[in-house]
Write a structure and sequence with these properties.
The chain is an alpha+beta fold. It has one domain: Chloramphenicol acetyltransferase-like domain (Chloramphenicol Acetyltransferase, 2-Layer Sandwich), CATH 3.30.559.10. Strand 3 and strand 4 form a beta hairpin. The longest helix has 16 residues. The protein is extended, with a radius of gyration of 20 Å. 0% of the residues are buried.
Amino acid sequence: MDTAVPIDLDTWPRRSHFDHYRRRVRATELFPQGAPPANTFDVSSIPWTSFTGFTLNVDGAWDHLAPIFTLGRYVERDVRTFLPLAVQVHHAAADGFHTARLIDALRGFFADATWLGSDVSVPDSSAIDSRRHG
């Protein structure tokens, strides 16, 4: 793994951007820009690592009912691509049954990527299905 190199802020070429950020952005709360719009959800990404489970513990978010999706580093095995996905849902908003239905719907979208456009190559799903069920 690469070793982190500290930044010398006195000579850093992006110092002016950093100073602007420090002056203008004071992100000390969960939603520093105000309440999120209706019908939105949170997505975070950890592209540096793959995982089999992930949990966020958001302090003071007992009433945060929007689902939180966390994506990890994808891996390719044979003809398949695997993307770790953690879904965190407040039980007051949905239970396991509803979350499972959501994940099944997402699997359907990912299995047939033609909805992305005509220039996307989609592998032969019969080869994938035979591996899964074979």
